[in-house]
Design brief:
The complex is a heterodimer of chains A (233) and B (127). Chain A is α+β, with helices and mostly antiparallel strands and 233 residues long. Chain A has a domain at 91-221: Histidine kinase-like ATPase, C-terminal domain (Heat Shock Protein 90, 2-Layer Sandwich), CATH 3.30.565.10. In chain A, 58% of the residues lie in helices and 18% in strands. Chain A has helices at 5-51, 57-86, 97-114, 124-127, 138-153, 182-186, 189-192, 194-203; strands at 93-96, 118-120, 133-136, 161-169, 172-178, 206-210, 213-221. A five-stranded mixed β-sheet of chain A has the order 2-4-5-7-6. A two-stranded antiparallel sheet of chain A has the order 1-3. In chain A, strand 4 and strand 5 form a beta hairpin. The longest helix of chain A has 47 residues, at 5-51. Chain A is elongated and about 75 Å long. Chain B has a single domain (2-113), classed as Rossmann fold (3-Layer(aba) Sandwich). In chain B, the strands form two sheets. Chain B has a five-stranded parallel β-sheet, sandwiched between helices. A two-stranded antiparallel ribbon of chain B has the order 4-5. Chain B has five helices and seven strands. In chain B, 49% of the residues lie in helices and 22% in strands. In chain B, 38% of the residues are buried. Chain B is α/β, with parallel strands linked by helices and 127 residues long. Chain B is globular and about 35 Å long. Classes of the chains: A alpha+beta (233), B alpha/beta (127). At the A-B interface, helix 1 of A face helix 1 of B.
Chain lengths: 233, 127
């Protein structure tokens, strides 16, 4: 049975809200580090002025570099948020799956680290393969992948990491979430709701454990959205 | 005063520990709950400053585990931008004045730590 448009909208808003909350938390952490680093520079200068000996310039340079690292970290986070916000600009678009998975990893990094996990992306420079693309609803696909990755994070494997990979398939494309308990991820509550089932159905996304590897969940997608139906919400 | 700082942001806890040391406050730090529990088993602290969000657990549950090792330890919670539920639970555990939102001022943190250690009687509050 299909969910109501209102329920579909709420589901999308919950996803957007969860990402926003995670990002605001991470930005607060970045600001805290910048504040403490700058405060330490101030402390060292005050101490130097009091004793008549200025602080070691190399130490100050290192502290300044760490502040710059944090501004770069914040920039990456905010760019991710901006790309998510603009993913609703077009109901249908051809997307580079590598870019989309990279964005998903950026948005999910804190969620994974809170579970003690690291997200590992394929080295795209080394892969030197043509871009894997598909015609889809970008925001809905990000929402669905967020749910699938959440289920994977809740179902860790032996190692504290999840390996994300992408590749073409005979009838479309696939994203692989490796290094997890794929069967447990598939049973996760977040993928069992009617809302999630409708979302996956709309996208034609079929999650299934890899037949040869029970630690990998394969998310198969058709090259374009099935039918012409519009997603609820 | 000996302080335990727990936050998964290593740059934050190490810098805060150094700044506290410059103010003659002895601070140890941990980025995970197991590290924090190891430290409280090895050392005696006056107060613990806990991030509400810690990998694989949370500051509120970690408080209970630490209290089993060191009953009577004082606590301050810090949060990036917690939910209403986090706030209510944190206030219940530590009191509104000991639930601080990042980024925090080191002067205010020290003031709150001193207040907490003095206890309500010496702060002129109702017991």
């Amino acid at each position: 049975m299909s969910i109501s448009p209102h329920a579909g909208q709420l589901g999308h808003l919950r996803f957007f809200g969860a990402v926003s909350a995670s990002i605001s938390h991470e930005i607060k952490n970045v600001l805290s580090i910048i504040r403490e680093r700058a405060g330490l520079i101030e402390d060292l200068l005050d101490l130097g002025l009091g004793s008549g000996q200025l602080p070691d310039p190399a130490r100050l340079r290192t502290l300044a570099a760490r502040i710059q690292d944090q501004t770069a970290r914040a920039d990456t986070i905010i760019k991710g948020m901006n790309r998510l916000a603009h993913s609703v600009d077009h109901d249908r678009a051809t997307v580079d799956l590598g870019d989309l998975v990279e964005l998903l990893a950026t948005l999910s990094a804190r969620r994974a680290s809170q579970a003690g996990l690291t997200l590992v992306l394929p080295d795209r420079a080394e892969a030197a393969t043509p871009a894997v693309t598909l015609a889809t609803c970008p925001f809905a696909l990000l929402h669905a992948l967020w749910l699938c990755l959440g289920a994977a994070i809740a179902s860790p494997g032996a190692e504290p990491r999840i390996e994300l990979d992408i590749g073409p398939q005979p009838a479309g494309v696939a994203i692989t979430l490796g290094g997890i308990d794929a069967a447990a991820a598939l049973r996760h509550d977040d993928l069992a709701t009617s809302e999630a089932r409708d979302l996956l159905g709309f996208l034609g996304l079929e999650p299934a454990p890899d037949e040869a590897d029970p630690t990998a969940l394969v998310l198969r997608l058709p090259p374009r959205l099935p039918g012409d139906g519009a997603i609820d919400g | 005063m000996r302080v335990l700082l727990v936050d998964d942001e290593i740059e934050l806890v190490t810098t805060l520990a150094e700044r506290l040391a410059l103010r003659d406050i002895d601070a140890d730090w941990a980025t995970t709950a197991p590290e924090a529990l190891r430290l409280v088993q090895e050392h005696t602290y006056d107060i613990a400053v806990l991030d509400v969000k810690i990998p694989n657990t949370n500051g509120l549950d970690l408080k209970k585990q630490i209290e089993e090792v060191q009953p009577g330890l004082h606590f301050i919670f810090v949060t990036g931008h917690g939910s209403r539920n986090d706030f209510e639970r944190g206030v219940l555990e530590a009191g509104a004045e000991y639930y601080m939102v990042k980024p925090i001022s080191i002067e205010l943190l020290i003031e709150r730590m001193n207040d907490s250690l003095r206890g309500p009687d010496q702060r002129g509050e109702d017991a």
